[in-house]
Amino acid sequence: MRLHVGCAMWSLKSWQGRFLPHPATPAERLRAYASWCSAVEGNTTFYAIPARETVETWAAQLPSGFRFVAKIPKVVTHERRLVDFEAPLGAFLDALEPLGSRTHMLWIQLPGSFGPQDLQVLGRFLRRAPDGYRWGVEVRHPDFFTAPAELERMLTSFDAEWIPFDTTTFFASPPTSDAERDAWTKKPRMPLREHAITSRPVVRYLGRDDSESTVDGWQKWVTTVAAWLREGRTPTVFVHTPDNADAPELCRRFYDQVRAVVPDLEPLPEPLPLPEPDGPLTLF
Fold it and tell me: Any stretches that span the bilayer, and where are they (predicted)?
């Protein structure tokens, strides 16, 4: 029985000296993050394909059971819209190869303009994509949510997961901080979806900068994730807030709440102790 939890990134300036060493190399920060959380969203891979040597340093810091959910580069999903994708996708998969099984899922985040009329394009992509990978698809066109059956059938045929981005808690009341006001203009207003297709569901949840509001909003996910675990599924849940200042701690708090409902779930390991700083902490 396994539940994995993680954040949208593994390093943030406000985490230094609290969750991560300060000062520290990028590799040391990743190693410390991986002692707090057991998964991470690979959002940076959306913007650029990392060098293979960089990924080798990631792999050296991550335990074998860690889950890296890697976002397919935007050149494939947004610029080429899943057409003529072989060269950039091949370069991306070659770069990720050092992660091995820690590449838990390849995450296809589609633009809001990619709607049900484009389903055949998605189907051709999944048929032609290399074997041996798990695929997750995040859609943002509202018509997929009002009539989900066709997309669900297609994903089921490829054993691919529908990755929901739950922003309902965030948009339930007006923003109250600068980070929330910024996110209010950028984050998509997505309908709630709690249905899993595969044995490996992935959830992206956006809360508020107020931790208690975030916790109140995820109670439905505690119930859903507990049910998935009892069904034999191995979910991964990513906790976001607009400023992400407390995200690693919130991930563990979510895990503990699920474990309170499902006592057979093993506790998370204790985070690595932080070394004493050499001097006063700064954010820079």
Answer: none
